[in-house]
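Bug: token stream looks shifted between consecutive jobs. Job 1:
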Amino acid sequence: MAELHPFFVHFPIAILVVAALFDLYGVIKNIQQHTWTAYALQLMAGVSAIFAAITGHRAESLIVRQEALLQGVTETFNRHISLGNAMVWIIVIAAVGRTFAVLEKKEWALRGWRFPLLSLGLAVLILITGLLGGQLSHEILSYFKAN
């Protein structure tokens, strides 16, 4: 299952960036349908982030078993895992919070800058997490080439 991690992580990364674009465009142009689209995309990202986390934990266990490899990638490994775990929780909490606001028919849930700014923050954080994952992959590949 660990080998599926690269497959699963790309979906929440891409979908959160697209959701942020829809949210921002929706609020700037006052097009509520774009905000609804961003909301639906964030819900999908929340579900897919859970699968990314599950497969990521499996990949983590493979690296931890190889002490020499772990020592070579410790800093990037720890940053990627910490930020990745935090992102799963943040994405899910944001999706649940937004759902609650929408179900409660809060005017600010689908208008205003609250959720577009949150979407933008999520997109930036998920891109940083993905860049750390890419850096970790390169460091692991370099380790195997050298050994």
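Job 2, same session, no restart:
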Amino acid sequence: MQALPAGARRATSACALACLTGLGLLAGCASGPDYQRPAVDAPPAFKEADGAWQPAQPQAADATQPWWQRYGDRRLNDLVEQANRANQTLAAAAAQYRQARAAVDAARAAGLPTLGLAAGGGRALSNSNGVHLGNDVNLGLNVGWEPDLWGAVQRAVEAGRAGAAASADDLAAARLSVQALLVEDYFQLQSLDRQIALYERTVAAYARALDLTRHQQAAGVALRSDVANAEAQWQAADAQRIDLVLQRSQLEHAIAILTGQAPATFSLAPATDDAAPLPQVPAGLPSALLQRRPDIAAAERRAAQANANIGVARAAYYPSLSLSGADGYNAADPRHLFEAPARVWSLGLGLAATLFDGGLRKSRDAQAVAAWDQAVAQYRQTVLGAFQEVEDNLAAQRWLAQEAAVQDRAAAASKLSEQLALQQYRAGTVTYLAVVVAQAQALANERLAVQLRGRQRVASVALVKATGGGFDADAPPAANAGLAATVAKNP
């Protein structure tokens, strides 16, 4: 390339700068439709909420609230904190979020100029117009830029930001899911501990009853069948106790995995105290779920991502413009590389447009529109599913409380019936079959009473999860609350 006079270079550079400025101003258009949140019909109130449930003020999804501490169990608090630190599902979700953030940066970089440095040297022999042997040394900077005239990069960045926000909400949803599953497993394990304790007392009582029948038989006032019935009752209760121990072992293993530990190195001592009263969970308004539940927020962000991808697809209909430039030095002798005669530069402009592609752009546009329709349908279905979960668990809290109260009375009555049957058997007024029936009924009612208290606690956790996590709905958010909010504020 031949070097131009300094005046010509300045004029050319000024012209190029003016062109680049004009193109930069044009690069503000964005193809495709602007995003609008899909409309959702939210009911004014929950059907299953009675007067005891007070509407909570809506807040953004925040999986950092220590909602599990409201149950007043220090051992549970320690387990959830371990899960927050070491659970591998959360580690994978966090890594996926970092990938999404990096994808936003990659999309943004596509709209910026590229700058490169090139250097080289060589020695060649040519026989054009005579034999020549010479050197060639070059050093220069190369710059290239494809202006985003039709907003393809802008839409791609918009889609990436929406995807990153969805990934952040996925992380929040995964954290809430792991926390809720751990707390549910813990309460189920405590329920099994109480059932095991019930069966241990029952097995001991049945052993005493077996001794009674044996003494009665030895005295000639009881039949051999009475002893057989008593022994069968005793052995069956002990078998059920062993099955409960198996279930407890499996739940303990599940809790170990949730906290990021191997089951072989993890154990939980049996629960010895009675369950604390359940804390009150604010039900909130149906519309609040649209802000509090991270899975709903993620589905809505994916709808925004699909909308932006429509703009990316439609930008392919327009021509693309590319600009390039180079400035450097080229000389045969390295000693003269940086002298004025060795100075070389170039400016280039290219325009490309697709005239026929066999319907490729049209099909990609149709795919993007279909993906948008799918994302909207999934968002609305997620909202409807959230409404159902809250209704289900509101109903569970309400009716399980009433069922537990009735079952407690049934357990007390059956326990009294068992005691009376034993007294009557000792007096010889009834056969031992009446005692067996009374004992079986008492054990079944007591076990059901314990199970109902466990189900109440599990339903309480499920309601926390269904409402997006956090008891204190009107409390200020935590300092690090909401990765999705961070993405929105720092794109």
